TrEMBL record:
Protein name: Uncharacterized protein
Amino acid sequence: MSQQIQPSQLRIVNDKTTELAKIVYYQPDLFLHSTELQQDMIYCFKAYFVYLTWHMATVSQYLAGFTPALQKQLRDVQERVRQVSDEA
């Protein structure tokens, strides 16, 4: 995931997470023995993390527009989020 997730893509991630959750609940052995399903779950969680963290940092930066020190801290957080999303 080299780019930020868009709100419209969140529905796709949500649908995939729901599908995986059903497998975990109804077929736990299948999930435990499938690294592909486990990786899919990790990717979904990372997508949620990146989206929510980016969104919160952007909103906070907007609201703290008159505090330069806080803006710098928030830009640092956004940079860390970019790094996490590039690793995914």
